[in-house]
């Protein structure tokens, strides 16, 4: 591998997105922790009036984490990785620098508008697609700007071979672009009736068709934001940090094409036992089971990259974060297909097992990988040593404990819910009322809230470590070198 520090890379846009990753992480996870405590102690819903209720805050939590924290992390790592693997600096093109900075500031504007509109109750009520049409148009512009940055940098590259991480970034851009456009086709109600608000709209689809298109998007938001773009990161940062080459480049390509062909059609498993055609439900289940192959192909490839170098887990907290992230990815991509089996889905759907599944992937896979990426980037972007390795260790164990408490409590709560909802007496009547189920779940909600709080505490530790690294650590003249000469 050619030394990456042979060029003077321009990380100004990457720095901007690193800071928004931290800010939106605090906001999104802070709101998430609050609404977890609202589930455990409902009186918290009334402390701040209508604007502090679970129903008003929950879309802010999901959008803040997915489109604030996660996307900022994806953009930050792109503006770092893209230059290094293509062997070209953004400063070599004034046009690309302008596009990068415009991308950042327009992105911040969109997030600000999203916060204001969701707080005001303006929502399409679609999962992961709550924003109304004027903001959707701005989202499209932001996405196009990122695409110009990707393909513009590729167009002026010195390195002719496109490293596998770039394949995943390109797939993220193209996949989200296609799906977002189709799912967000909507008509302002004022255009339809001449009445109402310009800020309100109705979907161009109706009934079951609307549900199908929504979950074609909804599940693939998980595919191309939670998954594909994060794989792009670990395929770069794990070899760099460990000094080990990827175990199998062929396996990375097999997994890539498998994900592209299979993941797109798994969204139907969100609509099992609904009014959509049964063959579509079955197709969603089948594709979900097949999805284990490319998902585990990627995860195993990541873990086998550490073959013969497992001793680094004792010395390097970043390796801990990335290895456990890969493990959570394996775990989550096995759990999801299991939940899509019709007989299991009959028990689990609409229960707390589902948010448990989402969060073991989001907190363990996406969260750990994003924080590890920023830890790796900080000394190379800001030319300063990381502030505290022991603080990283403590953060790792606190957050791991939080994740385990979170998903374990939600598994138990979900299975308990499903069993109680299905239970009948000797006359065939339901054995439990809805409130009976809620009462039983309160202890598990407290455990979940405490787990979320531990993860938030760990994120504050991460934030402190990064900010102290930037402001107070010893300056360095050369980039840190990992355990092997390969990482130069």
TrEMBL record:
Its cofactor is heme; Cu(2+); heme b. Its main location: membrane. Residues 13-488 form the Cytochrome oxidase subunit I profile domain. Heme b 2; high-spin binds at residue 357. Heme b 1; low-spin binds at residues 61, 359. Pathway: Energy metabolism; oxidative phosphorylation. It catalyses: 4 Fe(II)-[cytochrome c] + O2 + 8 H(+)(in) = 4 Fe(III)-[cytochrome c] + 2 H2O + 4 H(+)(out). The chain crosses the membrane at residues 16-40, 60-81, 102-121, 133-154, 166-183, 215-238, 247-266, 286-306, 318-341, 361-382, 403-424, 444-467. Binds 2 heme groups per subunit, denoted as high- and low-spin. Binds 1 copper ion per subunit, denoted as copper B. It is an enzyme of class 7 (translocase). GO terms for molecular function: cytochrome-c oxidase activity; heme binding; metal ion binding; oxidoreductase activity. This is cytochrome-c oxidase. It is found in: Cell membrane. Belongs to the heme-copper respiratory oxidase family. InterPro entries: Cyt_c_oxase-like_su1_dom, Cyt_c_oxase-like_su1_sf, Cyt_C_Oxase_1, Cyt_c_Oxase_su1_BS, Cyt_c_oxidase_cbb3_su1. The gene is ccoN. GO terms for biological process: electron transport coupled proton transport; oxidative phosphorylation; respiratory electron transport chain. One of its GO terms (cellular component) is plasma membrane.
